[in-house]
Amino acid sequence: MDCGESSCDGAGTCVPGVHIWSKAFGPMGSVSGPLAVAADSSGGIFLGGAATGQLVFPPQSAVGVGTTNGFVAKLDAEGEATWVRELGGTGVASIEAVEVDNKGDVVVCGSLTGTADLGQGAVTAAGSQDLFIARYDGATGSASIVEHYGAGGQTQGCLGIAITSSNDIVFAGKFTGTLDIGTHNVTSNGGPRLAVGKLNEQGVGQWLVGTGGADPTTQTVTGLAVNASDDVWVGGFFNITIDLGGGPLSAGGGGSYDIFLAKLSGVDGSHLFSSSYGNTTSESFSADLACVGDGVVVAGRFGNTLDLGDGAMTANGLSDGFIAMFDGVGQLQWKSEIDASNQVQPNDLSIDANGNTLVIGDYVGQVVVGNAMFTHLSASNSRDVVLFKLSPAGTTLWSRSAGDLSPNQFGRGVASLPDRKVAGVGRFDGQLSFGQQLDGSANDVFLTVLGP
Predict the structure, then answer these.
(1) Nearest one of 299, 452, 278, 447 to 369, comparing CA atoms
(2) Alpha-carbon distance 105 to 44, whole Å?
(3) What is the pTM for the complete model shown?
(4) pLDDT tens for each residue of 351-364
(5) At 334, phi and psi to the nearest 5?
């Protein structure tokens, strides 16, 4: 039944996580890159990503004409498109992250190759790939800010964004050579490195910091958020070494990847905290993070063992998942392990108005979330979607799974709606149902809304 306005945060008589509606977006195109979701205070839902071919968002026109183009779409509370913006051209503009600011406008970031219209006319990448950031009016989709940064022969791209209380834009990305955002720049001391920076509401650079590390290190940002004090939490994974301003952190060895977590000052990007987590025999990956007060909740996966500060967790399969909360000084407050017979990958998380954690991901084999066990419907090495909710103390409140015998069922993004409902997005083949069957072709988009 529909919970309406009653509480489903572990109390009340309603069925938590009840299906409200689902939609599929296709049918002549496919999602060819990341897929992100965010929501405004009125229940509007924003989707962003990249598609090859045509994705249709009724009642608006299709996105794509056979090439790969970025897109941003605003849907109303019933899933009908209010506006759709295609970032098209002879080049490729791929959106990596979507956030909504305090005015209800949407901010996106990603990478630009060649020439594309990001909303204010065609722009051409200065390098082989540029980093871009754009802000669009939430009501109309018109662009108010379009910024792109690059240099000849260099590869630069945005991996995450977050919005401060004053609508400044914090971003994280990867770069080679020199990344320049006006009066601030950083230079790689070797191969690709990471950068975190801030633009003001008008798109003017405020600060920029870069990571160090010994080659041939690999470094990737998977999560970025600002806390109640507008300081910045950033997380990801690396091998060899990484330096986020507090001195080098070293991975476990053997070419394996470890997780990193860091806190930077929102005023100037200076280092406040950093740590790494992993082991010497297998790989650990973070997926996303979100802030609660001054602290942060992190999701990811690990093989073999992982110690986040209070003793090692041991994976049951190739990789288990985890959700963990750290306080404002980086001390572990709680953790929740997601057991898998084969592997599970949390991909995105969000925090609702009551401090509950929403997580979406996908898995192979069997996965245990709280007291619920889900079994992947196919015997092949393919995936089903899992979506679940944890209390502020890390206890599982509810969990849902969806998929069929088709090979591709991926959970990619989750957002909390203003009435504590949950929006989950991903891509799928074949059939998928959280309570309403959706039929898709190759890598269609699904969007499902569940009760609190």
Answers:
(1) 299
(2) 11
(3) 0.94
(4) 999 999 999 999 99
(5) -160, 165
pLDDT per residue over 212-256, tens digit each? 887 788 999 999 999 999 999 999 999 889 999 999 999 986 668
Which tokens belong to 50?
Answer: 């990249």
d(CA 189, CA 187): 6
> Would you say the C-alpha torsion 66, 68, 69, 74 has a positive or negative sign?
positive
The yes-or-no verdict on residue 7 having pLDDT over 60 is no
Instruction: Please state, in angstroms and rounded to a whole number, the distance separating the CA atoms of residues 96 and 333.
Output: 30
Alpha carbon of residue 129 to chain centroid: 21
Assign 361 to helix, strand or coil.
strand
Evaluate whether 333 touches 295 at the Cβ level (below 8 Å): yes
Residue 400 and residue 434 in contact, taking contact as beta carbons nearer than 8 Å: yes
Cα–Cα dist 104/239, whole Å? 38
193: CB partners within 8 A, 6+ apart? 174, 175, 176, 186, 210, 211, 212, 213, 219
Instruction: Please name which of 182, 302, 176, 316 lies closest in space to residue 237, comparing C-alpha atoms.
Output: 302
Span 262-266, mean pLDDT? 98
Q: What is the pLDDT of residue 254?
A: 62
Give the percent of the chain with pLDDT over 70: 92
Tens digit of each residue's pLDDT (9 = 90 or more) over 45-103: 999 998 877 778 888 766 665 567 889 999 999 999 999 998 878 888 899 999 999 99
β-pairing, 205-210 vs 219-226, is unpaired
Residue 450, strand partner residues: 19, 422
Per-residue exposure over 184-195, b if at least 16 CB sit within 10 Å of its own CB, e if not:
bbbebeeebbbb
pLDDT of residue 330: 97
Pick from 318, 219, 215, 311: which is nearest to 259 by CA?
Answer: 219
- Which amino acid is it at 144? S
Query: What's the distance, CA 342 to chain centroid?
Result: 23
Strand-pairing partners, residue 111, are 94, 131
Owner of token pair 């985890």? 322
Task: For residue 131, give the nearest of 193, 45, 190 by alpha carbon.
Answer: 193
Average pLDDT estimate for 413-440: 93
| Cα separation, 155 vs 188, whole angstroms | 11
